[in-house]
Design a protein that fits this description.
alpha/beta, TIM Barrel, five-stranded parallel sheet, three-stranded parallel sheet, 10 strands, about 10% strand, binds D-allose, binds zinc ion, Xyl_isomerase-like_sf, L-rhamnose isomerase activity, Rhamnose_iso-rel, metal-binding, L-rhamnose_isomerase
């Protein structure tokens, strides 16, 4: 394999979410998965299995308080022993009664202060775990016209983000996630990339936009948003998943393989740009998965998700960029398009098997997982946890 390709592919990183390993899913029913992780320690064990088989997924995102522990030093050590690092810290300002009318945009100042205090606590968790990214998503919004003043809510969002931003240590980043709708159905306070971007620009250098693939209207060209934000130096990260109708329902690269390829293509173009800012931005993007598997076996689903990202990236790296530029320069619409399609249609599986051999991994991770007995072992050890709907509640922590 070509040395540049090998280098790029072995340096790829995909962060997996702790919440994807436990029982969580839709708001309708959460089906209990045999052997699903019961606490953060078991979630790290599962993530280590995904890392062991793929070699490109050492980071694990935490959700606070779901993953709250007394001793984060111990958690960091536990992760390191398994070849893992602590990724983005995700605060939770949406599961408590107080947040019925919003968190940082709540009309009640006391509630806003409480939300900001939690966000600041999460900055402390970042310091203790060595995490680089604070990843913010808000359920804030309104359900009816007139329910609250839209501009006041914008001001409250800006003020809250600014306070947290200014408390963050150098070298860290605040990732601001937007979402078209849900759970607020009339107006979501951070409703699209433009809203997130405006706040980021206003509050400071550490703030960057996070693009969750599930959070757009049908037909939105996400790769164009990616290109735009990269060029502005404000693309901070991704939440990868696939959607048919809304949110983080499906495994990334299942219903949207071409979209995922086009997104990776923009990132490859950005990483090779002559523009310094774009290049630096592309090199620092956090690639995270945000999926709540409901009917799929959890670890295998995560494994599949990481592998789908790997395939999309490999195909994007195969794009003949010189040929593409040439066709673009000549205004040759279809030749340019064919350059993209040639890469997209390439079967990269043999190449990736070769890569894994080079990386001392089993060339067939899914087969290796299925043959390895991990699922049977955790099913035996952990049993099947029933009950619980929607998002998990705060779990008892292991002392
Ligand atoms: C919610 O829709 C967002 O995608 C969040 O990023 C994420 O799902 C959440 O933080 C997990 O609770
Ligand atoms: Zn998300
Ligand atoms: Zn989502």
């Amino acid at each position: 394999m070509n040395a540049d390709l090998l280098q790029a592919l072995s340096a790829q990183r995909i962060e997996t979410p702790s919440w994807g390993y436990g029982n969580s899913g839709t708001r309708f029913k959460t089906f209990a998965a045999p052997g699903a992780a019961r606490d953060i320690w078991e979630k790290l064990d599962d993530a280590a299995e995904v890392q062991r088989l793929t070699g490109i997924a050492p980071g694990v995102a935490l959700h606070i308080p779901w993953d709250e522990v007394e001793d984060y030093g111990e958690l960091g050590k536990y992760a390191a022993q398994r070849g893992l690092t602590i990724g983005a810290i995700n605060p939770n300002v949406f599961q408590d009664e107080e947040y019925k009318l919003g968190s940082v945009t709540n009309p009640d100042e006391a509630v806003r202060e409480r939300a900001i205090a939690h966000l600041l606590d999460c900055v402390e968790v970042m310091k203790k775990t060595g995490s680089r990214d604070l990843s913010l998503w808000f359920a804030d919004g309104t359900n009816y016209a007139g329910q609250d003043d839209l501009r006041s809510r914008k001001h409250r969002m800006r003020a809250g983000l600014k306070r947290v931003h200014d408390a963050m240590p150098d070298g860290t980043r605040m990732l601001v996630e937007y979402k078209l709708f849900e759970p607020a159905f009339y107006a979501t306070d951070l409703f699209d990339w433009g809203a997130a971007y405006s706040h980021c620009l206003a509050i400071g250098e550490k703030a960057q936009v996070l693009v969750d693939l599930g959070h757009h209207a049908q037909g939105v060209n996400i790769e164009q948003i990616v290109a735009f934000l990269l060029d502005e130096g404000r693309l901070g990260g991704f939440h990868f998943n696939a959607r048919r109708y809304g949110d983080d329902d499906l495994i990334v690269g299942t219903s949207n393989p071409f979209e995922l390829f086009c997104i990776y293509a923009e990132l490859v173009f950005g990483a090779n740009s002559v523009d310094d800012l774009t290049r630096r931005t592309a090199q620092n993007v956090a690639y995270m998965i945000d999926q709540s598997h409901n009917i799929e076996p959890k670890v295998e689903a995560m494994l599949q998700s990481v592998l789908n990202c790997q395939e999309a990236y490999a195909k994007a790296l195969l794009i003949d960029r010189d040929l593409l530029k040439e066709a673009q320069g000549q205004g040759d619409v279809l030749a340019a398009h064919r350059v993209m399609m040639d890469a997209f249609k390439t079967d990269v599986r043999p190449l990736l098997m070769e890569l894994r051999v080079e990386m001392d991994l089993n060339p067939e991770p899914i087969q290796a997982y299925r043959a390895g007995g991990y699922q049977a072992k955790v099913t035996r050890d952990r049993g099947t946890q029933t009950g619980g709907g929607g998002y998990p509640v705060k779990e008892k922590v292991r002392s």
